[in-house]
């Protein structure tokens, strides 16, 4: 059989197949299956924060409570920070964020806090007036001034998933000084990965009237907010370089790495925040969290065991 005849035979066979499909509904089946695939609303696998390639992701150095989240909590990712919020305690377990000089500005502070729009059930929301007459400050975890260079991100720091009942003098005193000192590192050309949180504890916290309370019952409605007994913060500081991946730079020894942490009682604090410096290992023991777990193990172990590590000299 000649090549021309073979070619004609193949073309005829293809045309015959198409005729059969259209005549007896085979194409309907084919296209129905395509439509079913196209409209499939089966959810895709969730993407964990930090997997989107963003070098300055708020949890780039690790989600503190992996591999499993605590019962009764919700992991919420905002642009300003990522928070593990406790429905039971009505306060954050931890808040994690990245800080560099680009984040701070001079926007005026908002006057009120608002419920986090990601918390849909009002029973688990905290409102601004729930703190009224408590004697506690609405204490930011991720500070306003760490995000007052961007209005939308600053507004997110005023969600009540980002605050705890905090002793007022501590909030405006040494805790505030620590926040300013960390921003001074950012202003001097460093970038920071910070995690802060609070521990329920056995005693509770001290309000401005000297009362020690384990919870505060809102005068506005039937909710009780846990008052933590201790507040902590852990931070890793590296030289800023937006052209390279921070984890790779740390792993390859391309930047000095500094790390430290503090634990402070939720009460008036007499002294400097440097007096409250601890190892990150000590924070992990207190909280049962695994901090900065994305770091290579050898580097993580070295950093977390040296709580009094020398910090950058930015004088």
Please tell me about this protein's structure.
The longest helix has 22 residues, at 3-24. The protein is built from eight helices and 13 strands. Strands 1-2-3-6-11-12-13 form a seven-stranded antiparallel β-sheet. A two-stranded antiparallel ribbon has the order 4-5. Strands 7-8 form a two-stranded antiparallel ribbon. Mean pLDDT is 84; it is low at 1-9 and 16-53. The protein has 315 residues and is of the alpha+beta class.
Strand content: 15-25%
Number of strands: 13
**What is the 3D shape?**
globular
Distance between the termini: 92 Å
Global mean pLDDT? 84
Helix/sheet category: alpha+beta
Radius of gyration: 27 Å
Unreliable spans: 1-9, 16-53
Strand count, sense and barrel status of the largest sheet are: 7 strands, antiparallel
**Helix share of residues?**
25-40%
Can you count the helices?
Answer: 8
Main sheet: which strands, in order across?
1-2-3-6-11-12-13
SSE ordering? HHEEEEHEHHEEEEEEHEEHH
Summary keywords:
globular; single chain; 7-stranded antiparallel sheet; 315 residues; alpha+beta
Topology overview:
Elements (H helix, E strand, L loop, with lengths): L2 H22 L1 H13 L34 E5 L4 E5 L4 E9 L36 E5 L10 H6 L6 E5 H5 L1 H14 L2 E10 L5 E2 L5 E2 L1 E3 L6 E3 L3 E10 L6 H6 L5 E9 L11 E2 L1 H8 L9 H8 L11
Antiparallel strand pairs: 1-2, 2-3, 3-6, 4-5, 6-11, 7-8, 9-10, 11-12, 12-13
């Amino acid at each position: 059989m000649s090549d021309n005849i073979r070619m004609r035979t193949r073309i005829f066979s293809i045309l015959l197949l198409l005729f059969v499909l259209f005549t007896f509904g085979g194409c309907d089946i084919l296209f129905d299956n395509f439509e079913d695939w196209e409209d499939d609303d089966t959810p895709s696998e969730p993407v964990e924060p930090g997997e989107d390639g963003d070098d300055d992701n708020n949890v780039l150095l690790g989600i503190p409570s992996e591999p499993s989240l605590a019962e009764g909590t919700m992991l919420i990712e905002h642009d300003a920070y990522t928070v593990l919020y406790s429905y039971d305690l009505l306060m954050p377990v931890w808040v994690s964020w990245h800080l560099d000089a680009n984040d701070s500005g001079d926007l005026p502070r908002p006057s009120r806090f608002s419920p986090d729009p990601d918390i849909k059930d009002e029973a688990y929301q905290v409102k601004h007036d729930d703190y009224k007459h408590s004697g506690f400050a609405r204490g930011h975890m991720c500070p306003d001034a760490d995000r007052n260079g961007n209005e939308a991100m600053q507004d997110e720091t005023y969600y009540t998933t980002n605050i705890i009942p905090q002793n007022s003098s501590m909030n405006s005193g040494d805790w505030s000084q620590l926040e300013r000192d960390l921003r001074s590192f950012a202003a001097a050309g460093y970038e920071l990965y910070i995690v802060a949180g609070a521990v329920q504890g056995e005693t509770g916290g001290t309000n401005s009237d000297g009362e020690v309370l384990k919870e505060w019952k809102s005068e506005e409605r039937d909710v009780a907010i846990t008052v933590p007994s201790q507040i902590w913060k852990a931070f890793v500081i590296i030289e800023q370089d937006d052209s390279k991946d921070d984890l790779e730079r740390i792993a390859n020894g391309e930047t000095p790495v500094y790390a430290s942490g503090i634990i402070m009682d939720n009460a008036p604090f007499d002294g400097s925040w440097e007096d409250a410096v601890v190892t990150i290992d000590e924070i992990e023991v207190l909280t049962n969290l695994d901090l900065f777990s994305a770091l290579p193990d050898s580097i993580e172990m070295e950093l977390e065991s040296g709580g009094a590590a020398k910090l950058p000299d930015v004088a």
